[in-house]
Structures are given as structure tokens and as C-alpha cells.
Design goal:
heterotrimer, A alpha+beta (about 220), B alpha+beta (about 160), C alpha/beta (about 650), A: alpha+beta, Ubiquitin-like (UB roll), 2 domains, 9 strands, B: about 160 residues, alpha+beta, Glutaredoxin, 7 helices, 4 strands, about 10% strand
Amino acid sequence: MKELKKKISLSIDGKKITARPGMRILSAALSRGIWIPNLCFIPEADLPFGGCRLCWVEVEGEREPVTACSRPVREGMVVRTRGPLAERLRKSAFELLLSRHHLDCRNCRKNKNCGLQEIARRCRYQLKPGRFTRENPGLPADDSHPDFVFNPNHCILCGKCVWVCQAKSAGILDFSRRGLECRVSTFAGEPLGESKCNGCLKCVDICPVGALFRK
Amino acid sequence: MLNPEEEIRLIREEILPGFQPPEPRFLIPILQEIQARLRYLPLAGLRIVSDYLGMSAAAVWGTATFYSQFRFAPPGQNQVKICLGTACHIKGGEAILESWERELKIKIDETTPDRAFSLERVACVGCCALAPVMAVNDLIVGKSSPISVKGVILKSQIPNKSQ
Amino acid sequence: MKRNIAIRIQEAWEHLQNRVQGGEERKDIPEIRLGTATCGRASGALETLAAFREEISRNSLQVRLLEVGCVGHCYAEPIAVVANPGFPPILYGSVTPGVARRLVRDFLGAGDPCLEFALGAVEENEKIPSIFELPRFRMEKKIILEHAGWIDPARGEEYLLRGGYRGLFQALGMDPREVIRAVKAAGIRGLGGAGFPAGEKWETCRAFPGKPKYVVGNGDEGDPGAFMDRALLESDPFSVLEGMTIAGYAVGSRRGFLYVRAEYPLAVERARAAMESLRGLGLLGKDILNSGFDFEIELVRGAGAFVCGESTALQASIEGKRGMPRVRPPHSVERGLWGKPTLLNNLKTLAVAARVLDQGSPWFRSFGTPRSKGTVVFSLAGKIQNTGLIEVPMGTTLRELVFASGGGVPKKKTLKAIQIGGPSGGCLPASLADTPVDFDSLNAAGSIMGSGGMVILDEDDCVVRTARFFLDFTQKESCGKCTPCRIGTYQMLKILNNLVLGKGSDSELKLLEDLAFEVQEGSLCGLGQTAPNPVLSTLRYFRDEYEAHYREGRCPARACRDLIAYYILPEKCSRACEVCVGACPVEAIATGAKGIKVIDQNKCVKCGSCYGDCPPEFQAVIKVSPPAKLREYEAKSSFPRKLTNDDLRLTNENEKK
């Protein structure tokens, strides 16, 4: 038991920090105020989702970058958040997300309060899909609920709303279909206003982008 | 074909009792059984399954839509599946698919207006050695050709001529 | 105490052996074993079966007619072995209903072995040449498929009679740790694709605290172009079930799940029948062989998702969830099914474990190369003479597989490339045909062992089109969870879709290559990480073909349909033959002046039927790329190049007659 309680020390971008065994790099970093770009990370969740692929870091002695959300900390670990390979993979994922995101910040309710904007600002990326052409998925928004709207064209499939709805609320949301067709959906896509949604709005609060917003 | 009430009765009385005690792991086997009996998954049936297993309806929908086996509308009387695995691809499976589309005047994943045929693709039926392959009502036809499509359609139109 | 158990197991084993041998049928009546696995059925084996039955009863003969699985010679299906007392058992190929009737009448009825239909005797003898003299059989070493095609897959007795379950019997007499040591000593590597050492996996799973533990047999053979697992389950499910039981004993599990693809209904049916038979023999269920060890196996059917070959996705699927892979660690051996330690192995790996426990690690290590032990099963398909399954020692070269065993490329075409490992694998050019098949050599060449699908491409196959095919597949099968796989493969596919239309640019090709790297490195699970392999390997070996597509609008292999046209060379056309006209599904070919066949380019759908069917002695149909080249041919020809109204009138009149 004593062994388990021992703290692990590691360094991130030269800053020495400690972490509990079993913690992963991203939790350790965020809890010490070191920011690593991420969109799908939920501190409370049992296992990291690992879908957005933005939290790339490089670990000294390893050839390939790793996602900070999934890699457990190790004693003496030396982590760099801005290695060239990590940056390349991060930027690639960021551009890919933007290539299927309806970029319409001016009219977006999350303007100035959006995870994508924050990453662009702090990483000095342009808020553009870069090498890719932009495609708006062109799906209908669901505004049938009295309190909030779901606009799938802004959704980046981080899964946070699905997690919070299932773990903490009515469980009316899940992913449906797969691949590029994958969506956050109610049963058979029924309108939110007709579903068993209890209006807790936790999904709205956790959404990092403008896919779910209050009316 | 059954009417909606009969479908529900069949699911409740004939299918669900075979899966005891209700556990989420029975979801896919139950859906497979429903589809084996009804040839598709009616939405009302999915609701009943979700109640029975104590799973959220959204999760049932999420699982059902994830797997390509499941369909949510009844298929045609003759279900044609074109194999588009690697071997079938290089041996001209696409041409066979197009031949079906041309002959039936429908596209992949559609059903003819008279409900006689529906057309699906399948990733690989594992009969690569006999490529190109198509499956007509689960009977696998090996070494098929674009022209053989006409024959299969003709054969299906002869009444009571089963294999 | 331990000794007592050993004696009890020994007694139970002897009792079982006596029971099985005592039940053996009389040797003096003829026996027919017909392969009715899926390939056999697709070649008409069920009609052959009916013909055998009818003819046997018509001649009032006493014959034992059995359905077996697949010996791997798909090109010669339906296949039957006929054992007629007084003759060695003989293997027949292409047994149509007509041949079946003759075998019953002439061979069983009148003693003429109809050697014109025989591939050879299946035992060495003095009368009839044996199949083991054929190059294919000489090359093969069957460990995994040892019993496939020879036994009735529904009767455990037959498996026992051929030495089955000796592995489990040995294992039960050992300490579980010793069993794991044997697997480690043999150097078994996972045959599902990655080649992870099996013994280490077993060891970690055993060592990890937590109960219950589960064993999963991964039969989600999703790789299009691979059918080893299907054939194994349809032909000899026992080896897999025995291996699973041994694994259960070794890691301390009492419950296994056999996961089988939805697309394999016959495999499901036969595996279920086999489990029933094993329960009857006391080899599955409670207190196996009086050892006190209980093990139950449940069959789970997949529902059509390639990603479920990935271990965490497969487990989610068994739990009734969406098959979305999760991050690792924790690994399945620590936290798998329902959060419990779970051992997941490919079916072939499990079958191998059963043999190793029976015959010992040194025996197994005597096959293969220093770092890849044992054998490997490949399914040979595509442009190859003898399609089918083949099992050879690791280290056999691709050339030996394709030419010596596979009989080479049909129609005198040249070998262009060998695609190994399906959508996760790579395309190796013919120049690398001397690469040995083992995990490391294939990796170094830019492919992977994969699950064992091997598709042969000839000069008519375009690597760009093939790469597009695989990307289209993985893109459709992506679960959608992670960004690079969900959107990255889609962006790659868009570029490839353009290339096969002859569109693109140097910068798009660079984007394709860059993105391939980013998807490979950046994806969450094996599906995304390996999805770019077909693109990267073809770019590595066939870059010029990619460039020809967008720079010249030309497909060097003349396979991309938007970049080709079909043309009938008037001077080669036989004029009297009508094969192409009959093969054309859209009536685009008509008879022109002097009987020469002419393709109406406006009607032609470029399906290639005429090209494939034009008899080899004429070879009059050619493909040209880019299509504009058609005019050169037409200008050169002294024959009329287009159908005139007169020609059409003549054709119509001919048809009326």
C-alpha cells in the first residue's frame, strides 16, 4: 500500500511536477496548471476518450509522440509539449477537425468561448482548415427543445455530451452510425423536444464548441 | 409480412424470453434474432428491447446503427449481396454491381418498387477463391459475370423453382 | 493429491479413447467425404451431395457419405475423397453431379477408379500416384490445418481419432505455469497480424489479479481477401476449441467466447455443432477429463464491423456496445471484458497452441525462421491459377507461394504485385518476390503479415485503383471516434478518387503522402494506424503510376475505367465467333462489315467482360489508355471504324433469323 501512495516526479517543458501513480500526463499537467491542447478530455471520466488527437507530446527516449491523455506518468519522465512531430500531428488533427466544422464564428453562440478558438490562439494556428478544403456537413439543426439547440455542423465528436448525459443525466444521447457518418444522436434521431431529455443542460455546459448552446 | 402489432408481439413473446436474465450483452444477439425473423429492425421493437435490457434507447440505437448487418426497413423478397472484397474487386465485382444496378434500375442499398429485389454490398464473404462472388438470398454464386445477372433475375421469376 | 489427479485424468483419457475407437465404423464399406465448406457450396457441392445420395440409393449400395470441410484447394472444388476397399483413398477435384454419379456407378459399383477425375491418392501406395508428389503438397506443412478437410467438423470423435485433444490431455497433467512456459518456449507469435508473443500475453493475463478471467477467440476475420479463419472453423473447429480450453486452463479462466464474423453463417453453424459434440464427449463443460477443471465456451456472432478485429472494440461488441476501440493502457489482459483480465488470441494462434502442447515446443521450433516460428496460413486469391488456402513454414518465399504452390498467374500474364495483409497491409512489387514470409521481412518491405490474406495482382491491375479500394474500405469501416481516422482517411480518399479519374497534381500527391504519415502516426487504434499502408507501399514502389494518372490521364495498367477504352482489333477478330457479343451485358457490341465485331463506345460500360471472354487464340479485344488513343487505332485500321446504319440493319436481320 505504501508503494502505491508514493508520488511520481516528472518534468514537462522543463517544469518539474509530481503526480500520483496511475495518473496520465494530461491530468498531471492540467492539475499543475500546464496547458496541453485538448478537446475531448474529461477529468472525472474513468478512462480517457482519446478521440480528438490534439494532446500530442514527446517523451524523451521515445521515437514517436504520444497522446498525453492516455500515457501514464513514469518516474523521471521528461515530456515536451512542443516537439516538431507532436506539433505536426496536432496541427494535422486540428486542420482535419476544421475541414468538417461549419466555420461561422461571427454567428456562433460560442464565439470567444470556443475550444477550437482557444487552441488556435494559444498554439498560434490560423482558424482555417489549412491544406484541406472546407466542407460544411449541411445537417439540419435541432431546435425542438425549449431550452437549447443542437447544431451537428459544429460538432467535433469529442463525446463529452454523450458521457455527461449517460453518466450524470437522462442518457438520451449516444453516438450513432460510424466513420464520417458518426453523429451524436437521440434514439432514431427523434427531436430533442420529444425525447426524454430532462433539460439539465449539462451537455450544453460541457460542449467545448458551438454544437450545443442555450436558446 | 406482419403488421406492426404482430411484430411487437413476436418480439415480446417469442424472442425476448429466450434471453434470460436480461443483460446488455444480449443486445446484439437479440437484434440478430429479430432481424432473422422480421428481416429488419422495426423502431418500435428497438424501444421494447431497450426497456427489456434496461439500456437507454439511445444506446440501443447507437449499437444497432454501428453494425452494418442491421437494417431499419424491410428488404426486397430477393436479397442480393454483391461481394466487394479485395479479390472480387480486382476480378470485376464493381462491374457486377453495376450490372445489377442497371438491370434492376436501382442503386446500392435500395429496393425495387415492387419489393422483389434489394441490393446490398458486402465487405467479403470469404469466398475469394471463387471471385467475383455474389450472394442471392444467402446462396453464394461464385465466378459470376455481368451477363450472369440477367440469368439470376430470370431464375427468380420462375415460380416455385427453388434450388 | 496432485498424483491422484494425474491418474484420474489418465483414466478418463483412456476411457475416452476406448469409447471413440470402439465406436469406429466398419472399414469394409466404401466411404465418400465431400467438402461442403462455403467455397465448395459456391461451386455446387450441395448439388454434388444430392447426386451422390441419389446415385447411391439408385444402385442400392451401402456407402458412408460424409460432409467435411476444406482441404484448401478451392480452385478444384467441389472436392471429394473416395475410399473404396481394395483401393487407396483417392482425392477427386471438380466433382460435378455428373462426376459424382460416375464415381458411384463406375468406381464403387464396378471398380473403375475414374482416374481422369482424380488429383491423386491421399496415401502413399503402389497403384496410384499420390497427391503428395504434387509441388503444392510437397511445400506444405500443415500444423494449423492438419485436420481441415479430412474430418467431419461436427463429430469430435473424428478429431480424437486423428490425435486431437492430446494437447489438452497433456496440459491438464501439467501445472498451468508449465503450460505457459511451453507456449513461450515454442515461440508462438500471434497470427492475427501483429505477431505479439503469445506466451507473454498468457503470462500477463495469468499474473494479473482479478476474477473471473475470460478467454476470447478472435474469429472476426474482417480483412477482405482473407478466409483462413472461415475455412478453419468450417473444417476443423475442434483445434480452435481445444486451444481455447488449454488457454483457459493456463490463465485461470473458466469461460471463453468464440467471436465469429456475421458474414460466416456456416462457420457459426459448424462451430456450434462441434461444441455440442465436445460436450457430449466430456471435453467441454464441467470437470473436463475428471480434472476438476471447468470450461465453457459461448459463441458470439459479430454484426458486420471490421474494426471489431481490434481487441478492445471486439470486447465492446461482446458486451453489446458500439465497437469503438478505447485507449490503452489498460490492456485487455488487465482490463478486458466487463473490466476483467481477458486473453484474446486469433483462432490460428489458439489452434497452434493445441498442437504445441501435444507435440512439444522443440518440434514446433523446428519449423520457420529464427524469429518467426512454425507455419503460416495464407489464402491465395486474385490473379492466381490455384486459388485456395496454403500452409507453409515461415520463411517460404513469396515466389514459391505464387509460382510453385499457386501455379503462377493465369492467362500468361505477368505478376505485378502481391498484396499481403489486406487493408492494413502493403503491396509488394514482383521484384520483391524473393522476400521470405515472416514477420520481420514483410515489415521491412513495407507490408505486414496481417491475418494471412494474399491477393495476387497482374499486369492488368492498377495499384492506384487498388489503394483507392482499400482506403474506401477503411474509410467506411472507421468507427469515427478519432479525428485522423474519421476525417483523415476521408481526405485521403478524396485525393485517390480524383486520381483514378486522371485528376490531381504534384501538390495533391504530396498531401496524400503527408496525410498518410499523419493518419498512421496519429490514429487511436490499429485500423487507422495501418489504413495508409496500401497507399504508402504503392507510392513507394509504383510512384510513376500515380504520376501517369494525373499528368497524362493514363492508367499504365489500363484498369481505371475513366482512363481507358476497349477496342476490338479488326485484324485479330475471328469474325465467326460471337463470344464478346454474348458476354456484353449492355449490347454494346455488334457485328459490323465482314463479320467483324465493333464496340459502340457510347454504350460501352467498360465492364471488361469482352476482354476477359475473347478466346485466347484471338485476343482481339484490347484496352487503350488514355481513351483518346482509340483514334490512333481506328486510323490505322483499314476496316470501317464505326458501325454504319447498314451494319446495324444487317445485325438486326441476323438476330431475327
